């Protein structure tokens, strides 16, 4: 299932996939895979993404 | 024999120095997951080839495959499966270093392994007579390197096209 909340939050911060990937220390393809719903990130990566986007885990990764 | 083994030893030392002098390559968690899966698939392929050859050896009508050919076939099949799968899933290159650099080191390792196979075969270190002509042995290595290169090229091409469509 696509993670549209992540995409929206990233766009809201005006960050490209590559920019967010650089900030959290992963490859651009990993961010793309999370947004497409092809990959379930570990809790550590979820926390890093949330910190960079100034949102909570519930906002991005909880239905 | 010494003349042939010396370049292999020099190759091993150069390879070791190159690998030890590099900082740790950085793969992210998804890439490590894909990488582990690619090793698993490579293992299955090598296992399957060996089982098939072993089964075939039970039949007298089928000529026996020399050990060195089986070793070469297993080695390159495994490497091709592992490399192509991880290239396709964007897990072949660490995301922190230049792709060309990593590709060069990988090709160096493959060339070294192929040279090792040739030396083992030429000097019959596995017993029996040399069974694989050097040209064929080197051609197998070159074809494998080409397959990996084509996979990289194709992946890059598809990525660029997808980006352009966005």
UniProtKB/TrEMBL annotation, chain A:
UniProt-listed Pfam families: HTH_3
Coiled-coil annotated residue ranges, if any: none
InterPro entries, sorted: Cro/C1-type_HTH, Lambda_DNA-bd_dom_sf
Keywords annotated in UniProt: DNA-binding
Record-level Gene Ontology MF annotations: DNA binding
HTH cro/C1-type domain sequence ranges: 6-60
Taxonomic lineage from the root: Bacteria, Bacillati, Bacillota, Bacilli, Lactobacillales
Protein name: HTH cro/C1-type domain-containing protein
TrEMBL record, chain B:
Keywords from the named record: Membrane, Transmembrane, Transmembrane helix
Source taxon at top rank: Bacteria
Membrane-traversing stretches: 6-21, 41-59, 65-88, 100-120, 140-158
Protein name per its UniProtKB record: Uncharacterized protein
Species: Ligilactobacillus apodemi DSM 16634 = JCM 16172
């Amino acid at each position: 299932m696509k993670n549209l909340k992540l995409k929206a939050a990233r766009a809201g911060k005006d960050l490209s996939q590559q920019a967010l990937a650089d900030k959290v220390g992963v490859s651009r393809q990993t961010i793309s895979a999370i947004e497409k719903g092809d990959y379930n990130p570990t809790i550590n990566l979820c926390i890093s993404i949330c910190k960079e986007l100034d949102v909570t885990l519930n906002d991005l990764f909880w239905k | 024999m010494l003349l042939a083994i010396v370049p292999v030893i020099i190759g091993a030392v150069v390879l070791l120095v190159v690998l030890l002098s590099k900082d740790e390559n950085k793969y992210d968690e998804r890439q490590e997951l894909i990488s582990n899966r690619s090793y698993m698939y490579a293992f299955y392929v090598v296992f399957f080839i060996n089982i098939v050859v072993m089964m075939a050896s039970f039949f007298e009508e089928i000529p026996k495959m020399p050990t060195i050919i089986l070793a070469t076939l297993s080695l390159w099949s495994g490497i091709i499966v592992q490399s192509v799968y991880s290239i396709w899933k964007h897990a072949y290159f660490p995301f922190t270093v230049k792709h060309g650099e990593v590709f060069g080191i990988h090709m160096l390792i493959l060339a070294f392994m192929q040279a090792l196979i040739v030396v083992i075969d030429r000097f019959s270190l596995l017993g029996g007579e040399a069974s694989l002509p050097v040209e064929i042995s080197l051609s197998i290595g070159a074809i494998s390197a080409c397959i990996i290169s084509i996979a990289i090229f194709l992946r890059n091409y598809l990525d660029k096209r997808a980006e352009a469509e966005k």
